[in-house]
C-alpha cells in the first residue's frame, strides 16, 4: 500500500485586508433562519 504524497498548501495573496473587507455591512436582508429576500425590517422580537 503506497502512502499518498504530501502536497504543501499554497498561500495566494488576494489583496490587503482593508480592501477585502471594504464592503462588509449589515445589509438590509436577513439570512439562513428566514426565507430568501426577507427584509430586516420585517424582523420582530417577541
What do you see in this structure?
This protein has 46 residues and is mostly loops. 9% of the residues lie in helices and 0% in strands. The chain has one helix and no strands. It has one helix at residues 17-20. It is elongated.
Quick summary:
The chain is largely without helices or strands and 46 residues long. It has one helix spanning 17-20.
Which key features would you list for this structure?
single chain; 0% strand; 46 residues; little secondary structure
Distance from N terminus to C terminus (CA atoms, Å) equals 60 Å
Characterize the overall form.
elongated
Judged by helices, strands and strand pairing, the structural class is little secondary structure
Q: What's the tally of helices?
A: 1
Portion in helices: under 10%
Biggest pleated-sheet summary = none
Number of strands: 0
Low-pLDDT parts are none
Alpha carbon gyration radius? 21 Å
Quote the beta fraction: under 5%
Mean pLDDT: 77
Order of helices and strands: H
Protein name: RiPP
